Amino acid sequence: MGLPGAVPRRALIVRGAVGADATAVELLHQRGFAGIVSATGVDDALARIQLEHFDLVIVPMAEMHSAHLQLLDRAVQRAQSTFVVGTAETADPDLMLRGFRSGISEFLLLPLQPTEFGAAIDRLLQRIQAAGGGRDGTVIAVYSAKGGVGVTTVAVNLAHALAQVRQDDEVLLADLVTGSGDIRVHLNISPTYDRGDLMQKLDRIDKDLFRSVLTESVDGLWVLPGPDAAELNGALDGESTNVIINQMRQDFGFAVLDCDHYLGDSTIAALETADRILMVTDLSVAALRNTQRALLVARRLGYPDEKLSVVVNRSQSGEALSAVDAQEALKRAIYWKFPNDYRTAAGALTKGVPIARFDAKSKLSVSFRQLAEQLAGSHATASRNGAHPTGRTRMSQLFGRAPKRS
Question: What is the 3-state secondary structure (H, E, C) of 178-247?
Answer without folding.
Answer: CCCCCHHHHHCCCCCCCHHHHHCCHHHCCHHHHHHCCEECHHHEEEECCCCCHHHCCCCCHHHHHHHHHH
